[in-house]
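During the second year of the project, the team shifted from modelling isolated chains to modelling whole assemblies. The rationale, set out in the original proposal, was that interfaces cannot be judged from single-chain predictions alone. As a representative example for this report, we include one of the complexes processed in the last quarter. Its constituent sequences, exactly as entered into the pipeline, are reproduced here:
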Amino acid sequence: MKALGIILAGGNSTRMKELSKKRAIAAMPIACSYRAIDFALSNMTNSNIQTVAVLSQYNARSLNEHLNSSKWWNFGRKQGGLFVFTPTVTSENNWWYRGTADAMWQNIDFLKKRHEPYVVITSGDCVCKCDFGPIIDYHIQKQADITVVCTKAPEWDDISRFGTVKIDDNGLISNFEEKPMIAHSNIVSTGTYIIRRRKLIELLEQCNAEGRYNFVTDILIRYEGMKKVYGYMLNSYWSNIASLNSYFRTNMDFLKKDVRDFFFAKEPKIYSKARDLPPAKFNQDAKVRDSLIGSGTIINSVVENSVIFKNVFIGNNTVIKNSIVLDGAYIGDNVRVENCIVESNETLLSDTSYVGDDQIKIVIENNNRLGI
Amino acid sequence: MSSKEMIAMLLAGGQGSRLGVLTSDVAKPAVAFGGKYRIIDFPLSNCINSGIDTVGVLTQYQPLALNRHIGIGTPWDLDRNNGGVSVLPPYERSDNSEWYSGTANAIYQNLKYMESYNPEYVLILSGDHIYKMDYEAMLDFHKQNQADVTIAVLPVPMEEASRFGIVVTDDNKRITEFEEKPAHPKSNLASMGIYIFSWPVLKQALTALKDQQNCDFGKHIIPYCHENGKRIFAYEFNGYWKDVGTLGSYWQANMELINLIPEFNLYEEFWKIYTKQDKIEPHYIGPDAEVGRAIIGAGDQIYGKVFGSVLSAGVIVEEGAVVKDSIIMKDTVIKKGAYIEKSIIAENCEIGENARIGVGEEAESKLNPKIYSFGLATIGDDSVIPANVTIGKNTAIKGVTVPEDYQDGVLPGGGYLIKAGEQA
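Output from the structure prediction step:
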């Protein structure tokens, strides 16, 4: 137990459009069976990090529902556990989390009470498999103050929504730019950091005393040159889902065999909350091609190149192409869905058509499904 | 002292020998069902859904798969500080150690387990039926009638009644007579092997008959209670209840799940069936795959064709392979070009390229016509079928087979290859 974990899961993003109305980004469903935060939680537990704090704020309820028991990720131990911290009013503080550093500062007692020497800070909106063990070793070996896990941004993604870095031959980060208008590097920070627990406490207290609240701009960038900040390259699949485009792309990536093999077949596995749904059922006229289908889904018609989540019902003579259908959606007869994301638990009436042309269309149809 | 109103004792020690090679390495309650479950999931889920949080599971025959499945009971919310699930195997004593020699003998050997919970009622269940049943409603019935014993009964067609243990009741549902497989049945109420006993009655009967050889509930305990004037009532159950004791009925019950609206509906939110799920990922249907009338489990990868079949989790059907009217269990791989019809293929098997299984004329099984007689090809856990072989109907295979095992590349109808496991 060399480290404890902090998962920053407070955020909301207008880039997610209507999808973030229902839930926090960390609670976004991914690849039929998972929520975004499952990847961070599984990476923690698979790296033998047994004490993890989830800092949540925006639409915390959606996340709390998912985290109603910690046993699915092998937490819930006497040694360690899963802690969900939302902002609370105390005699000293009645602020919301004003930024990532402030979120951690408001829970500094938690950091002070623990005994693990290192802290792994990560974000709840990234899809990746990452063993933190070797990164902590790298951090120790380099005698770094902060190690930033970096990766090459996916070519299709918008780099200006990330922090870009330049890493020199020794691994030192020489140029950290947060959300640059013009990026000078395609190496981006994954939002995962390794830092000594005492160092983190010291930096957070200093930061708060100066009335600063953001971990990246007020600690990482502000102390650039003063502190030894190293970069560690993550060379396997990584994607940040916090924009509509990347959310869609990331889900569609799971139709590729190498991505599925990496996440589904290769140990260690990604864990999620058990839903105890029956297996998927294909009826007589189902015609499914190149698609991922979740448990409990019932299919009566054509599905192509799509990701159909759990407990979805698809009626007769319906065609779904190049789309994502989230949990519990009900799609009636003679419906056409193309280039869409159908929001969870929505009901699409029979004889309707939804087509996203040059852009992915988000389908929200709060119809009454009783009586269909 | 802890006190539970009702605890359940689940008999899961039987081999289920009529399932042939499917139970060579596993007890019948651990056999897969419906693309996701194991048979024991149904009584265990019924228990927790009925508010019973203390369940003793009696194991004996090949318990490894069962023990691993049950674990500490987490999937059924039976991991409890007080109560929960306990696996109860037979154990050694300083004198007179014995195996479980009958259903009631097994329960008798665990008298101390039951006593430790100080129950008012004990529910006796077996781990080999597919059904959803509210045991709490049955307990209410038991209490209402101030019964000593309540037996769950199922109305069966009168012409089939002579295959079952039949009970005859008076107008108040009190049982007046028992008939075991009667030639001329007086009633059509068949015993389901589910009993609620008032604890003092059970304890007294078990103790009185402790020296009875192969002591059995149906044959000894219930008749003993009847002779002693105990109040025995019949609780009529009218839902879906399926005995999956033979390969034919097992195959049939799985196939019924594929129907457009199956009689036994697993898709209702109410009364969920829980199970230990080690695979949670979605399944993938490939670009040239065809899947219709099928149940497809988590993590499956389908590149070939699947019709009229039930596939458990982690199954791979490669390009050009065809699976028809079959049951394929967990982690089995069907290689390219293989053709499978009306077969039951158990867990973790490998079917070689272009192998043809379940084809040709029906022929009587040379191994055991009573077991292998439904036109099915049955392949046990961890078997390997080499490429390009042909396997007929009413066949049985268990273990790693090589091309030399197949004369001219064929295992004709009725043939068998048992290369591992217990002789089925």
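Chain B touches chain A through 37 residues (CB under 8 Å). Residues 217-227 of chain B form the longest helix (11 residues).
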